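To: structure subgroup
Subject: Chain for Friday's discussion

All,

I'm putting the inputs and outputs inline so they're searchable in the archive.
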Amino acid sequence: MIRPALALGLLAVCSGIACGRGAETAEARAARVHREAIVLDTHADTTPRFQDPEYDFTARHDRGEGSIDLPRAREGGLDVQFWSIYVGKVEGDGRAIREALERIDAVWELARRHPAEIAIATDVASIRRGVAAGKLVSLMGVEGGHMIEGKLAILRDFYRLGVRYMTLTHSFHTEWADSAGMGDPMPPGHGGLTPFGEDVVREMNRLGMMVDISHVSDGTFWDALRVSQAPLIASHSSCRAVYDHPRNLTDDMLRAIAAKGGVVMINYYPGYTDPDVAPAIRDWMARHAPEFAKLRETSKGDMRAMTAAMRAIAAADPVPQGSLARLLDHFDHALKVAGEDHVGLGSDFDGVASMPAELDDVSKLPNLTRGLLERGWSEAVVRKVLGENLLRTMREVELVSARLSREGGASPSPR
């Protein structure tokens, strides 16, 4: 049986090979591989738009209104998306928890309003069922351990609500884990994970929630690797050997993630991936910093107003974009160092200032597939990168959780 999402791609393939009368073109081959694969992305920050009652995810929007909507996801062949549950640095009074719960609810409500087109999944089996049914399969990842506010009970509640990974930190230290920051490395707060941070990792293993080490400091990375019984993921990180940025991973980290069975999901943001463009993006951000500060103050969380203002700024002064070629350098490097079973897609769509020019929204994902094929990676390897590697790692995390449950593993702390 051919799943519905393949139809457009098969038409393109038939056109490209003249229905068997000639050699398959590069474009047709890429379309075929892309549409036959499960295309899975582990990080997009579109979620706040779902909370806007006037926003219609099923309508096509231009790039000024975000990088992902349902029509463009269909056009780009996206099958599975982890939506980021992110709130900023708000501390101590339950606000981070409340805001995270509202984001989680928005994802569930999106699926409830469009049951014929969108499905929520919580495990690998339900992901595969949703893809086979032709739906856009949605999962969630909490981007920052600060949102549990130091309580394992909240971590468990997030899991019960469908969250299937948690990034241990965002761009700032938590009370139990150090962050890499966003630019120059941050002075350490703890030197890695505290004892409670180790308990967080153990509880994530017990639950079956993937431990995400994007955004963390080097010390936190190595502590998480040591403590975790399950494979780790980097939901949206690239290679430090290609661009020496603290948000990226060293070759030793790539090899260590692979050795534990995990996967590195490559981030597309030129500010992290392209040394030729990143300085210009930093200059752009600094140039508009006063406008952004004022906008945050005046919009008071109004996503529609924020979007309109950001569009006006970018129209007057476009954000520099990187190239697909430089992004492919990161995929090449990760595949060579970590191996073909340990690399995937972690776009960071709707969470960063710009994207590569040839990959500036989700409809352009087939360009990535074509680029990987043109660089000599086999169709089998490309299918792994597009989704199967993450599914394998997620299944291994589920199996570790099942084993720990059989062994009677208890929560490490009542906190």
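Points worth raising on Friday:
DSSP finds 16 helices and nine strands in the chain.
The radius of gyration is 20 Å.

D.
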